[in-house]
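Protocol step 6 of 9: fold each sequence in the batch and record its structure tokens directly after the sequence line. For illustration, a two-sequence batch is reproduced in full.

Sequence one:
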Amino acid sequence: MQFADLVELAGFAGVSVWLKMDGERATHRWTVLLSCPDADFRYRRDVNRFDQVVRIVRDELSALPGEWSWLDDEIEDLDEFAEHYEQLGREGAIIVVDSTGEQTLRPASPAL
């Protein structure tokens, strides 16, 4: 499964997954926000690494009512996804990723 599949499957189950990679921050660059209006559930946390984001998503979703067996599937693009956004973050970008795709809030700084 790709990370985008996890986000999409969560959405089908009624849970929105929203990530922000904030290149302006020295630490806690990743923000993860989960929300499920039907379950009156909202979760937000800032962490240092993308693998922490995936763990949080899995842990929080599995605590909600529903069938979550697919959460144990391997995220095949974990390293590539993390490296892509970490690189953009190192260049100063601020990017939001959710079920609608990627939105750049601030582009990476041009190479000098």
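Sequence two, same batch, same settings:
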Amino acid sequence: MPKVPVLALTVSAAVGLLLTGCGSDPAPDLDETVLAAVDAAGDADGELDLISTTHFDWQKAVIVCPGDDTTEVAQAAGTTDGPVQGELPETVDVGTGYLVFVNDNQVTQTAELRLARADVCSQELPVADRVLSPGTALRVEPGTGDGWVVTAG
């Protein structure tokens, strides 16, 4: 049986751990994190605080609904310096809404939400009225089936 130097085994093991993420749990998916927070808020007092749900910097969040004009979303999410920069979600899926998080006029994160589970689009509001600041609480109430209706304020 050939002898393998200890250093080669050590390097091999270290590379294997790096490739598998050192055995640690992966970071939670933002979609699932938001949905879990919606479920918890609905089961509790009905108030969802996005600050305690998200663990990254953001200055505003925009509720994006099916059929929204992405130019209008970019304007509403932007600043006086211009529309927000970065990738905005496609709004063609009638069963999906989004929370688009913005920091320094850049899209930083987007949570994709199935409306059957967390209907953030039940209120027919202009996009400009669906811009949330970090202090805005969302209201979570029972919807149809097993879903929730999520509204601002």
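Proceed to step 7 once all outputs are recorded. Observation for sequence two: The helical segments are 6-19, 30-43, 50-53, 70-77.
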